[in-house]
Amino acid sequence: MIATLAARALTQPLAHAADRMLGPRGCLLTFHRAASPELWEKLPNRDFYLDIEFLDRFLAHLVAQKWDVVTIGEALRRSGSADDNSRYVNFSIDDCYRDTFELVAPVFRRHNVPLTLFVTTGIPDGTASLWLIGLEYTLFERDEILLDGKVLRLSTPEDRRATYHRIAAKWDGPEAPQHYAAFCAENRVDMNAMHWAHAITWEMLEALANDPLIEIGAHTVSHARISSLMPEEALAELEGARVRLNERLGINVEHFAFPYGRAGDCGPRDFALAREAGFLSAATTRKGLVRGGQDRFSLPRNTINGSHRSVAAMEMHLLGLTGIAARIAGRV
Ligand SMILES: [Zn+2]
Predict the structure, then answer these.
(1) How far apart are CA 55 and CA 38, in angstroms?
(2) Contact predicate 75/22, CB 8 Å
(3) Looking at the structure, do residues 79 and 214 belong to the same domain, yes or no?
(4) What is the dihedral of CA 20, 22, 24, 29, to 10 degrees?
(5) Under a CB-based contact definition with an 8 Å cutoff, are residues 256 and 283 in contact?
(6) CA of 103 to the centre of ligand 1 (A)
(7) Is there a contact between 49 and 43 (Cβ–Cβ < 8 Å)?
(8) Cα(15) to centroid(ligand 1), Å
(9) What is the pTM (predicted TM-score) of this model?
(10) 28 touches 75 (CB < 8 A)
């Protein structure tokens, strides 16, 4: 007890001094989907999902510890203010699926903290191929599938996970939607029904856009890797999503997040294109914290995936330690 108090007496002034020296710093966290713990255990691509009960515990922890949970707009304001010494955290969801509306937004509402959505407009428009999700749920729901004319039996969750990762790696690339379409035809999967079982709809987004806790940003039209496109195609993906969200939801969309978001997926040319497309900021998935003087078109964000299930491990992100570890390992 005394040792703890002594340690605190020593570390707390240091932490406060660090706050003053380092200025404001924010941790932007991002994820895709969420699932109940029971479903999470069985999903073939479970790293893509947060355990919703973990998210609930984590938000309760942040609120109890007096962290400021903020929008991207507020994070930018703080990073641009010289006399702000606050520490803050932002949560964003990329792509946006049904569970954003059904499962995740209600948890943020319950804790009364904001959530940012980076929407791929081809999802509610039904034009983006959800091939990874269609593959995942076909493997999840069936005991056997046909793959290139051969019967493949599926038994345990581990088996389904291994099969999912093997097929996803094989299909990955520009031809993935065609591989998926052929797979659906062979296995009599209704592609349209599969899409709408998982896609967020414009009606759901309208309801979310009316929620004062929800901030809506763009994440391209088709979930394209921006660095791989010619400048005019890239601009069409950036501007197209902004215009479409404005047209459907009547909102001014100010923030953008790059699909994939790592160093090879978006670079200086793309940061400039995001500005040209009319955004005020663009976020990557390069790890690290937002500090004073942060470039607004290459915001760092830390991905939280399904393997993050402990609040203690999340502290690593909040303190910026995962960013330091990634830089040491050369994984940025
Ligand atoms: Zn994405």
Answers:
(1) 15
(2) no
(3) yes
(4) -140
(5) yes
(6) 18
(7) yes
(8) 35
(9) 0.90
(10) yes
